[in-house]
Design brief:
Elements: E1 3-5, E2 13-18, E3 23-25, E4 49-50, E5 65-71, E6 74-85, E7 93-98, E8 107-109, E9 112-114, E10 116-119, E11 124-127, E12 135-137, H1 139-142, E13 145-147, E14 152-160, E15 176-183, E16 190-191, E17 197-200, E18 223-228, H2 233-236, H3 238-248, E19 252-256, H4 263-273, E20 283-288, E21 291-295, E22 299-304, E23 310-317, E24 321-329, H5 336-353, E25 368-373, H6 381-388, H7 394-397, E26 411-412, E27 415-417, E28 439-443
Parallel strand pairs: 2-18, 18-19, 24-25
Antiparallel strand pairs: 1-2, 3-27, 4-5, 5-6, 6-14, 7-10, 7-15, 8-9, 10-11, 11-12, 13-14, 15-16, 15-17, 19-21, 20-21, 22-23, 23-24, 25-28, 26-28
Length: 449
């Protein structure tokens, strides 16, 4: 659990917990790689091979390095593309795995027999089972996970070694695998230029994974939860929500997709599931779209954020003063322009609230948290706008401004599964999209630590 506390005399402490599939704040564990879209934890892993620069098509991929490690039943890969791509959209990048180390099986490709060909941009693959013909497979058949979900030039991929794509042989049950990457276009790069980079599985699964406790490290900590409840699920399917919330014992809850559920209904459920001492119960407010924010403490003011599906709430934590919580649910999927517009709107509202004379004027140094289902599956600029305040649509929203009181960017609280070294917050086994980190908590780390 990560404690966040206000700097200075107020001494406000906050433990933040991003919840969809019981996640807890990400922490490095020596000797293990975390699939989170960041690569510092790969520092001790030596690259399998390199590739010459400049051998790709103009404007296309130019692969330069590949890393691999196996731990706790997973094959984890890291590679660099030499250009900016959205890995699950609009690209011709392919991963080829010779899973039986036999060039005579699978799809012939420059000296290897690729038993699995995964087409990142199509979000699908072709698998050649032992003794059988090609079969189309999806991410769930391979238990495939990629990170990050936003654009970039460096990516992580995980595949479960004991996955059974056709219900028969294990995907990666042999002693090793040959790996290749390619961009399928005229003059497209291939890594390596011929054959495949061989990786031999280690019998050592790695250090045991620390199961993260949901207990509070300090009774003074305040716990915030963000949760997309999927089509009013907290009202129509209450039992799982009751179990999880009783296990987590949150203090502030930011909900999304509570389209038809009224705040009074949420208050009633929370009063029954998480009763508070004394005569007062939970507070819950809904001022914009599908968003409800609930708190054990008074919500003293709330505002819909214009031009965005987002709402802002001042919460008065005991003895600490106000904390601003912004709950957001931005457009999903391929709507990059709409998502950037609403993120710009949010950061413009916060910019104005942090300056005197606007419709809303925050007390200086008020801690700020932006959270919710951000649906960040497009261009990385959207993440950068949330962190830095840099606005893209300046003609409408004006120039951006740093969103922390000390002139710095917001901190990004990355969360991992409580018993799995991955950071995804959403998983849809029947979806064409593989699991990904769509839910975020960003905060002013000049006031919270």
């Amino acid at each position: 659990m990560v404690s966040l506390k206000v700097a200075g005399a107020r001494g406000f402490k906050m433990a933040l917990l991003a919840v969809l599939l019981l996640a807890a704040p990400l922490s490095a564990q020596e000797g293990l790689v975390l699939l989170d879209g960041f690569t510092a934890d790969w520092a001790a892993v030596e690259a399998l091979a390199g590739d010459p620069a400049g051998d790709g098509a103009p404007g296309g991929a130019d692969f330069d390095s590949l890393w691999a490690v196996n731990q706790h039943g997973w094959l984890l890969l890291r590679f660099r593309t030499g250009g900016e791509f959205i890995l699950q959209e609009d690209n011709d990048l392919r991963l080829l795995l010779d899973t039986d180390l036999d060039a005579g099986t699978g799809l012939p490709s420059s000296g290897i027999g690729a038993d699995l060909v995964w087409r990142f941009g199509d979000k699908s693959g072709t698998y050649f089972p032992p003794g059988g013909g090609p079969v189309t497979v999806g991410h769930f058949d391979l238990r495939l996970v990629t990170a990050p979900t936003v654009s970039g030039g460096e990516f992580e991929v995980a595949l479960r070694r004991d996955a059974h794509p056709t219900g028969q042989a294990e995907l990666l049950g042999g002693p090793g695998v040959r790996i290749a990457l390619e961009e399928v276009r005229t003059g497209g790069d291939r890594f390596p230029d011929s054959g495949g980079v061989q990786f031999t599985f280690s019998p050592d699964p790695g250090p045991p994974i620390d199961t993260l406790s949901l207990d509070r490290l300090d009774s003074a900590h305040v716990r915030l939860v963000t949760w997309n409840v999927l089509y009013d699920g907290i009202a129509s399917r209450p039992e799982p929500f009751r179990r999880v919330l009783q296990a987590i014992q949150p203090d502030i809850i930011a909900l999304q997709e509570v389209w038809s559920t009224e705040p009074a209904a949420v208050r009633g459920m929370l009063d029954a599931w998480l009763p508070l001492p004394g005569p007062l119960g939970w507070n819950a407010v809904k001022v914009n779209g599908d968003l409800i924010v609930a708190s054990r403490w008074p919500i003293t003011a709330s505002w819909p954020i214009p031009e965005a599906r987002a709402s802002a709430h001042l919460i008065e934590a005991p003895g600490t003063g106000p904390v601003l919580v912004i709950d957001a649910h931005y457009p999903c999927c391929g709507n990059n322009e709409g998502r950037q517009w609403e993120i710009d709107a949010t950061m413009a509202w916060l910019r104005d609230a942090m300056q005197p004379g606007g419709v809303v004027t925050l007390e200086e140094n008020t801690p700020v948290i932006i959270t919710g289902d951000m649906n960040l599956v497009g261009w990385r600029q959207q993440v950068e706008t949330l962190q830095t305040g840099q606005i893209v649509n300046t003609d409408f929203f004006g120039t951006g401004a740093p969103p922390d009181w000390d002139g710095s960017e917001l901190a990004d609280l990355v969360s991992r599964q409580s018993a799995l070294m991955m950071s995804y917050t959403w998983r849809g086994d029947a979806s064409v999209f593989s699991p990904g980190r769509l839910d975020y908590i960003l905060y002013t780390d000049s006031r919270l630590s």
